[in-house]
Amino acid sequence: MNDFVSLLPLLTICAGAILLMLVSAFDKVKLETGSYISLGFFAVAFFIQLLVTGGSGTILFETLFNGMLVSSSFTTTAGLVILACGFFTVLNTNSYFKVNTFGSLEFYAIMLFGVCGMLLLTMSQELITTFIAIEIMSLAIYILVGYDRASVTGTEAILKYLMLGAFAGAFFTMGTALVYGGVGSTKFAAIGRFLVAHPAGSPLLIGGALFIFVAFCFKIAAFPFHAWVVDVYDGAATPVTGFMATALKAAVFTVFANFLAINGNLHGSWVTFLFYIAVFTMFGGNLIAIGQNNLKRMLAASGIVHSGYLLIALVAISSESFTGSVIGYYLAAYSAGTLGMFAALSYLGGEGEKRATFDDFKGLAKVRPYSAAAITVFLLSMAGIPPTAGFMGKFYIITSAISAGQVALAVLGVVSSILSMWYYLRLIINMYFHDAVESFETQGSILATAGTFILVICVFAIGIYPIVI
Amino acid sequence: MFEYALSFMIFLPILAGLALLLLPLRKEGARIVGFIVSVAVLFLGIELFIGFAGTGAMEYVEKRPWIESLGISYSLGVDGISLLVLMAGSILFPMVFTLFAPRSKGYYANLLIAQGAMAGAILSTDLVLFYIFWEIMLLPIFFMIGIYGGPNRLPATIKITIYTIAGSLLMLAALVYVGVSYHNQFGQWSFDIVQLSQLNLSGGFAVLAFLMFMVAFAIKIPLFPFHTWLPDAYTEAPSATTFVLSAIMAKIGVYGVIRFVVPVFEVEFARFAILLSLAGVTGMMYCGLAAIAQKDMKRMLAFSSASHMGIIALGVFCMNVQALTGALFQIAAHATSTGVLFLFLGLMEERMQTRNIEDLGGIAYRAPIFATFFAIAMLASVGLPGTSGFIGEFLIILGAIKFSGFIGFLAGTSLIIGVCYMLWMFQRVFFEKSNARTVEFQDFKVSEALTFLPVILLILGMGIFPQPFLKRIEPTALLQIAQVTNPSHQQLADKTALNSDQHNQKN
Asked: Residue B412 and which of B10, B304, B317, B484 are 20 to 30 A apart at CA?
């Protein structure tokens, strides 16, 4: 019984997705209604998840799902982050489709299916389940990325993402096969037991783990598998980009952390690789971001940098006392700031996303001071300036890195965030220190404004009351 | 009643500032709100000063846990180190709201937020809390220079922001290192400065962390060679902001060194003291010489402010009671003299639309009261006996000679440079022939004269009766020095008594 309670959020979203799919068969139902239905399902699932979080301890569904799923405070936190991301993305979408006309009801259904995949992914404790969850999630995201069939950049984006995503999926299955060959099981727990018995591992396990790492690195846009990010994020509709940048990353990082925390040996043997991946991800992302003129592209590149910070946390996790609190907290902080930025962009972007570059936002503060202030708060959070959530997130990550003896990595992370100040401040400077060139009229909905406002509060609330799980 | 006084001093201005941003007020209304809030803080500050016992320990302590899993607490307190810095921040602030033509409400909101954040940085006794206020402090400055600054404000803003953020992010890494070291040595988390001072740090990472802290504070002070952002930022900022930067914010850099670096990194600090004090002296000389060559009066004052910050920093690096007491005293003296000169200059600029020294002249004939007030502040800034500047600089040079004869000699002689540029500027601006521009110069309005009068009296008062101030600083300074030079408690008592005797004789 208790097992099903833990799964209730997933089931709720699943029911919502099926309901929306059925509803979208009817012509009379408006697009607006679809967004309200999905908002409702997200809200209900979020509160159920919140109640479930009350029960502490790790539940491994040994009897019901044969140990393939797990529920711990870390997975429920990740679930909360994903559900909140879904909620705010729907708010953005609602506003976005007021001015861009390619929306239809199926959009929301597919999005809910995507969230199902993500929730399943956070809980998966077995490689085949992980693969299925990744594919449920990815298929939904592929469709969302290319939803605007008339857009050339959107088509380019989906082609790139689909091709590379298929490769990543193939790598993952290959890795799973090899691991099964080495260990005789695909369960994380079994791999852990195998490593205890054979500390050196087996060649098949090592090779398989490498393939699985490649697949994860592709999904989280870590160096050297980050090249697709900028074009795909740029081509997708703004709310979808925000959704990809936050919810998808949260889901994949959760399972990645769970996988690494299986066993100290596994983590220990990959630490050096992860170290370099983290460093190159941060600095590679910064180099890309500094050169961008388009805001979405800049945010895409800054997302790579944030993946780098999260990788620092992965380097620093210790499997003995793994709670994932640092990762969970950073994911929440990062998601609040990023979603806020994408909410503001969806709202202010205008028809066909005509306002997209740094220059287009010149003088925004003179015309729309509240929007500009909100964007500033989000940017400061992403840059890690106190008292915002982003600062506490960065603080935890640096603390965990130094605690784990990775002082060099912590310092490099700090240097990287100095570099990142450049492109965050650039937008603030454009908004505040220049005269307005246009009137920034928009037809976005009140929901987007409300969503942005709640996110601003979230950014401060997460920063000032850092609840560590 | 004064249980929450410190929290009030921090959050009243910040909340008022945020309210100003959100509420639809006119600029005059915003100015009045700002003035009322800053006067309220001023009264709180005076009450604190009067009630301050001077025991050497933290007073008015507020402490409650904030992030317990990492031992971070919301803890505030005042002691001899922070008292005068805090006073400088609270007493001088109402002036920026009464002087000058009204500007937009965003400007006043930023000033208020800056005031609150600076009070927070001064009062925090928890390293993380300090860091948070330290960063918040930069944001209003960023906006004030960027939005309301002079014609070249953009490069100036970017320069100061990148400089300070780079410094403070390095500090973040260093402070986390300190916290983690504490956790490793004592088995629990804490960022409280009293507990952190028990740390024994050694090895390469300790030196690295020390240097990272020092870079952050050196940028804020600014210590040579990290001063290059200063002339641009000071020149382009609006006068009130320059005043805030010079009178208060620069002091928080020095204060941070005394409060957080010295107790934690005693060994590294002692090892680098000579190098640092040389940097201080070099900065004094370099910025002093640069000030002589300036044509823009504001730029000249900017360099002069940097030059005087050099001597305050020197006072900290000499590591003896005289120099430290002098530095703490000089912090207040510098704020009331050099800082206030920027306000005088702001008034002149508002009246004559220029600040080129060549375009001015003969102001003293037209505006005798203005010239007198300016002269008093200026003489205090160069350290004339009878003014506040003398006491501080005298004590610092005394300490510097004790520390190293060579450095003391250099510091003493470079004070002459200060006299050169100040008096020469005064001659060219206030005497000589008046021209078409300065002939119209109006003397103080009553309100302006009343604004400046208390400060002028304070300059003289601090110069003639320094004892009420010194006696509040000294106990803490003694404790601090004892901690650095003598980690062992046995010897601490002897040294304290000895130093205190010496000091009393010299006064």
From this structure: B484
